[in-house]
Specification:
about 375 residues, Oxidized Rhodanese, domain 1, Rossmann fold
Length: about 375
């Protein structure tokens, strides 16, 4: 006899209740017979977890009275039929099953809870990344309680901010003192035509709020400088360097060292982009990689930049930030480069410099000659 015929045969011997009907009834015990990994989607409040695989051994410890009114449920209402038949064989006389299982109960809007602290709407919103072993409910809770600072709401900061907010990073801070210009729109996708002339921080906040209302956005409408960088960075768990100039990058690097807040750096110009994670004191810093800065570096306004390429690089920054926040291995000690014209990714390893002017000696952080 196949599984389906077996279920149908036992179903004739077991009373089934539709979710709305069961919700208005009183039971001495409601038993969740799903396996542990199936319960991450939530459960009926007040139910007892007794997996069908251990039901015969454990059910008497939960329900001693074999005449008690018992409702069993599983995922879709099939395993609970088998479990009910098992309990009947054990002598339980008033065992019933929830038709459609927990899935139908939830879909009909009846109350349910999650054991991991995530609200039902959070489990639905973040469902696809909750299925990742590297994130799961523990990682998602870390994201929801995390704070990420994005310096620059431009070509790199736009996708980084959107993807961090979409992933559920609880607080997103944005530092920028600029206003939206029409020349920004081919790459700065967090803004739109109606935003032209508005402050970039407020425009970005509105877009993030529309994407994920549960995210808190902190606006820092200012230019990050050597004087204010440490105070800004200290309130966050990770900082995204989406700036477009060396003084800001150096100030961020020194603030990252001073606060031990990891920094996800990126740059983009023409058809090329780079990404690196600086996580002092565990790994090298920005100055370890670039001890000498070019004096004739060009800007996007001078050299141009492919808008879609900034999306690739900014999204990669978001990935690295999420990895840091959930405890996955970051890109520390590796410079990742992308050549969009040649469709090539390359990786270059670099080490912590013991003689680095920034992280090689702690007193250099306060040295006004640095930067």
């Amino acid at each position: 006899m196949d599984y389906r015929r077996l279920i149908e045969g036992y179903r004739e011997q077991v009373t089934e209740y539709e979710p709305l009907e069961a919700a208005n009834m009183e039971f001495d015990a409601v038993i969740d017979v799903r396996e542990p990994m199936q319960r991450v989607d939530g459960s009926i409040d007040g139910s007892f977890a007794v997996p069908r695989s251990t039901l015969e051994r454990d059910i008497s410890e939960v329900v001693e009275d074999q005449d008690a009114r018992i409702l069993l449920y599983c995922v879709v209402g099939q395993s609970s039929i088998l479990a009910a038949h098992t309990m009947q064989m054990l002598g339980y006389t008033r065992v019933s099953s929830l038709a459609g299982g927990f899935r139908q109960w939830r879909d009909e809007g009846l109350p349910w809870v999650v054991e991991d602290g995530l609200a039902p709407d959070e489990r639905i919103r973040y469902d696809r990344q909750l299925r990742l072993d590297q994130i799961g409910s523990t990682g998602q809770q870390r994201l929801l309680s995390s704070r990420a600072l994005i310096v620059g709401a431009g070509g790199l900061g736009s996708p980084a901010a959107l993807y961090l907010a979409a992933a559920g990073v609880g607080t997103v801070g944005i530092v920028d003192d600029d206003r939206v210009d029409v020349t920004n729109l081919h790459r700065q996708i967090i803004h739109d035509t109606a935003s032209v002339g508005r402050s970039k921080t407020q425009s970005a906040a509105d877009r993030i709020g529309a994407l994920n209302p549960g995210i808190k956005v902190q606006l820092h409408e200012m230019r990050l400088t050597e004087e204010n960088a440490t105070d800004l960075v200290a309130g966050y768990d990770v900082v995204i360097d989406a700036s477009d100039n060396f003084p800001t990058r150096l100030a961020l690097n020194d603030a990252s060292i001073a606060t031990a807040v990891p920094m996800v750096h990126a740059s983009a110009l023409r058809f090329e982009g780079t990404v690196a994670v600086f996580d002092p004191p565990r790994g090298p810093c920005y100055r370890c990689l670039f001890p000498v800065l070019p004096e004739d570096a060009m800007t996007c306004a001078e050299a141009g930049v492919l808008g879609a390429m900034t999306g690739v690089i900014g999204s990669t920054q978001a990935v690295e930030a999420i990895k840091l926040l959930v405890g996955a291995e970051p890109l520390s000690g590796i410079l990742l480069t992308y050549d969009a014209l040649g469709s090539r990714w390359s990786r270059y390893r670099f080490d912590k410099d013991p003689n680095c002017a920034a992280c090689g000696r702690r007193e250099s952080i306060a040295d006004p000659a640095i930067g």
